[in-house]
Give the backbone structure.
Amino acid sequence: MEPNVFIKSLHNSSRLVKQWGDQRPQNDKSLRELLSISGVSVWDVMAAELALYFISEKIEEGAGRKTLRQILTPYLRPIKYAFWRKSPVNTIDCDRWPVGSTALFIGFTSYMARDVLQPVIDLMRSEDGLIPVMLTSDLVKTGDHSNQVHSINRHRGEKTVNEARKWARSIRKASLILTRQEKYRQIFVDGDRLLWPSVKHGVRRVFNVYASHFLPDTIAVAIHILTVHRPSVIVSIDVADPRTRVYSLLAASLGIPTVQVQSGPVNSVRLVLFFADFKEHVT
């Protein structure tokens, strides 16, 4: 796909996803409200995923060939999460949380955490101030007792597990309402063109597979970390990752500032500006 065509398609799909989320069919709940749990809109969490992988190629005639990732993602994700199993109750990292004000770095994408966030953390550790904590999706290696790296799988108490199960049922119920009720299907339009026949399989995969299997646990752990451990600021990079978006949306509702890092050399202007912006948010 040509770059300008892809960008145009992505802009249009992003516009439509936002538009659909705001609409209230027959004065009923909007999709943003229907797909919400504990103050977090699952629709907003999945907006980037929906626009990029499931909607963009449906709204531009002659958009050209899709990327391999666009072709495979709708089919591989259901397989991945069909075999995914939640980790058992484990609160080891709760006891390891540093005492004092912390900066929570969201490092779910491993290479971004290593190449972009870790240099920032190393610089922060050389200065007095907030204590950096890196949050990852993988378990910390055995024997690593550093307070710097934490895993979401080690912040899962009984309450977190129970809430995740409850919210999984809620998302599945809301997803069925979305996909089965005609008044919600009619929301998926672009002008006079009804898009539901084209996008229905993608919408079902996003909310029935990805959201209902993965997000409840992510949201439950995020609520625990942000309310119990209460970091002073959140630092992220991969804002398109639904897991990162959960933390950003929750942080906004809790009044916790979020700062985004742009990749670049550790002595670059970007990083200097980041630190200036960072200090402005937390001081």
About this structure: The chain has two domains: 3-87+159-219, 92-155+230-282.
